[in-house]
């Protein structure tokens, strides 16, 4: 099984951190944007969007980071990262969709406002903080939604946010950053050449 990724972005980091945290038997391949690897026919046959992350498992090709997370959690049940019951699974799906439909656009809006206007993001941080009160992880125990959401708040922009009004969120973020998978995928300065 091979994961095509590029550690530095949150959609990639969430999956790579998951793989590394649980020591999953997945070969991690860092694509070369410099060589336009993701726009070559061989990669477009894996993901016609020409984007990473993408996973190849035998003859199965999967793209979209949250779909990859839930697939990995399903085929590696020892991760205990995805509930099997309908309500538990729906709860996870809720937070994964929330991340891609609300958190990601709010981070984009913040970037567009040159990191000054946090008005779209603040209510979302409050929602996360409420959810985390009295819980170690978003849904109690460590799961795929934690990886999907934490990766966004660990971006350069996410790290600059003021979490003083959301202490449960701040504590969770510190716990997430200390996890083996996130330590192993800490963003380093891009290599030149
Ligand atoms: N919704 C997709 C987003 C994938 C995506 O946009 N990947 C970016 C990096 S985060 C990419 O590959 N960009 C390269 C390009 O557009 O050429 C996911 O969650 O996997």
Looking at this protein, list some descriptive labels:
193 residues, alpha+beta, 2 domains, 4-stranded mixed beta sheet, 9 helices, binds glutathione
Give a verbal description of the structure.
With 193 residues, the protein is of the alpha+beta class. The protein is built from nine helices and four strands, in the order βαβαββααααααα. The chain has two domains: 2-79, Glutaredoxin; 86-179, Glutathione S-transferase Yfyf (Class Pi), Chain A, domain 2, CATH 1.20.1050.10. The model has no long low-confidence stretch (mean pLDDT 95). It has a four-stranded mixed beta sheet, covered by helices on one side. Bound molecules: glutathione. Residues 9, 11-12, 38, 50-53, 64-65 line the site of glutathione.
Summarize the structure.
The protein has 193 residues and is an alpha+beta fold. 51% of the residues lie in helices and 8% in strands.
Topology diagram in text:
Elements: E1 2-5, H1 10-21, E2 27-30, H2 41-44, E3 54-57, E4 60-63, H3 65-75, H4 86-112, H5 121-132, H6 144-153, H7 156-160, H8 167-178, H9 180-184
The chain binds glutathione.
């Amino acid at each position: 099984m091979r994961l095509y990724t590029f550690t530095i972005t949150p959609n990639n980091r969430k999956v790579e951190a998951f793989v590394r945290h649980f020591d999953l038997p997945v070969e991690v391949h860092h694509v070369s944007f410099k060589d336009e690897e993701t726009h070559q026919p061989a990669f477009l046959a894996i993901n016609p969007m020409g984007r990473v992350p993408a996973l190849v498992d035998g003859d199965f090709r999967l793209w979209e980071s949250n779909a990859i997370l839930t697939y990995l959690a399903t085929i590696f049940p020892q991760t205990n990262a995805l509930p099997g019951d309908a309500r538990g699974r729906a709860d996870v799906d809720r937070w994964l969709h929330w991340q891609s439909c609300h958190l990601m656009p709010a981070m984009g809006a913040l970037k567009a406002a040159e990191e000054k206007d946090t008005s779209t993001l603040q209510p979302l941080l409050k929602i996360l903080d409420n959810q985390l009160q009295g819980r170690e992880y978003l849904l109690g125990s460590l799961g795929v939604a934690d990886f999907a959401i934490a990766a966004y708040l660990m971006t350069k922009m996410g790290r600059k946010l003021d979490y003083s009004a959301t202490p449960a969120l701040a504590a969770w973020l510190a716990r997430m950053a200390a996890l083996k998978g996130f330590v192993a995928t800490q963003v380093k300065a891009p290599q030149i050449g």
